[in-house]
C-alpha cells in the first residue's frame, strides 16, 4: 500500500487520483469532463437573442449543483499552479464553450483565459450600453401590438421583451405589463378588455388567460357556424336536384302509353270518317 493510500484510509476522506495514474499506467479522466452540458443548460446563448438571463440562470444552477460557482463568480482566487484546480477550471470552461454560439465566442474567447475571465467577458458583452439599449427596448415594448399573433404568442412576446428590459436594469412592474397587454390586444376582444380593466389587482397571467379563453370560445363559435352553413347548403342543393311531380313519366311508362295513344287516334279518325260520309248521303237523298 502506498503512503497516499494509507493516509486516505486513515483519514476516511475521499481523495481524487492525480492527473496521471502511474500505478495503472492510464490517463485519469476527471468526472466533470464526462458531463454533457446540454443536459443542464438546455438553451444556447446567441448573440442577437434575448435569452441571456435564462442562460445565465441555467449555467449558475449547473455550477452550483456541482459546487463550482467559485470558478465563475470570483469568490475564490484562481490557483493556476495547482493541476487539480486547473483541470476543474478547464471543465467549467468547456461547459461555457458548449453552451454559447460561435458568434458569442468570437467576441469573448481568448487564449489561456480562466472560466471566470470567459464568464465576465460574456456578461460584459450582453450588458454593455445598458442606457441606450433600454431606450430602444422600452419603445419597442410600449408599441407592441397583437396583429395576427394568437393571444398566447402575443403574451409570450411581451414577456420576453419585459425580461430583456429587466436585464438592462429597467424591470417592468406587473401593472405595467397588464396595461400594455390591454393596449396592444386585438380590438375584437373589447368586451373582455373591459372586464380585465375592471378587475382589481389582476396579474398579467390572469389577464392573458382571460383573453385566451375568449379567443378559444370565438374560434369554437366560428367553427359551429361554418359547419351549420355547410349542412344548410348541402340540403338546399339536394332538394333542387329532385324531380318535380309534373315531370314526364319514366321511359317504361312512355313506351306503354305510346300504342294506346295511337289506337285512340285511329278510332277518332274512323268515327270522323263515318260521320262525314253519312251526312253527304242524306244531302244527296234530299236533293232527289
What are the salient characteristics of this protein?
single chain, 288 residues, mainly alpha, two-stranded antiparallel ribbon, 12 helices, 2 strands
Report on this structure.
The protein has helices at 3-11, 52-65, 70-73, 83-99, 102-108, 115-127, 130-142, 151-167, 174-184, 190-197, 204-240, 251-287; strands spanning 20-21, 26-27. With 288 residues, the protein is mostly helical. Among the domains are: 30-127, no CATH class; 130-232. It has a two-stranded antiparallel sheet with strand order 1-2. Helix 4 packs parallel to helix 6. It is elongated and about 140 Å long. The chain starts with a helix and ends with a helix. Residues 1-25 have low confidence and may be disordered.
Amino acid at each position: 500500500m502506498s503512503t497516499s493510500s494509507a493516509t486516505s484510509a486513515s483519514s476516511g476522506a475521499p481523495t481524487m487520483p492525480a492527473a496521471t495514474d502511474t500505478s495503472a499506467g492510464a490517463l485519469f479522466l476527471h468526472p466533470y469532463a464526462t458531463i454533457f452540458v446540454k443536459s443542464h443548460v438546455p438553451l444556447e446563448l446567441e448573440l442577437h437573442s434575448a435569452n441571456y438571463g435564462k442562460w445565465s440562470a441555467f449555467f449558475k444552477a449547473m455550477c452550483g449543483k456541482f459546487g463550482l460557482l467559485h470558478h465563475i463568480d470570483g469568490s475564490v482566487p484562481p490557483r493556476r499552479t495547482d493541476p487539480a484546480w486547473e483541470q476543474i477550471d478547464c471543465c467549467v470552461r468547456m461547459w461555457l464553450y458548449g453552451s454559447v454560439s460561435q458568434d458569442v465566442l468570437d467576441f469573448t474567447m481568448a487564449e489561456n483565459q480562466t472560466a471566470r475571465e470567459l464568464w465576465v467577458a460574456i456578461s460584459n458583452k450582453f450588458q454593455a450600453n445598458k442606457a441606450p439599449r433600454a431606450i430602444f427596448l422600452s419603445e419597442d415594448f410600449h408599441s407592441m401590438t397583437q396583429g395576427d399573433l394568437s393571444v398566447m404568442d402575443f403574451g409570450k412576446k411581451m414577456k420576453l421583451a419585459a425580461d430583456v428590459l429587466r436585464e438592462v436594469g429597467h424591470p417592468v412592474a406587473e401593472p405595467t405589463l397588464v396595461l400594455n397587454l390591454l393596449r396592444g390586444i386585438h380590438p375584437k376582444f373589447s368586451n373582455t378588455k373591459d372586464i380585465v380593466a375592471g378587475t382589481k389587482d389582476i396579474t398579467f397571467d390572469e389577464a392573458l388567460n382571460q383573453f385566451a379563453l375568449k379567443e378559444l370560445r370565438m374560434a369554437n363559435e366560428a367553427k359551429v357556424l361554418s359547419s351549420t352553413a355547410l349542412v344548410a347548403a348541402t340540403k338546399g342543393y339536394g332538394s333542387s336536384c329532385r324531380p318535380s311531380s309534373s315531370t314526364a313519366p319514366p321511359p317504361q311508362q312512355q313506351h306503354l302509353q305510346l300504342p294506346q295513344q295511337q289506337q285512340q287516334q285511329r278510332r277518332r279518325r274512323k268515327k270522323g270518317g263515318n260521320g262525314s260520309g253519312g251526312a253527304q248521303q242524306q244531302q244527296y237523298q234530299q236533293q232527289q
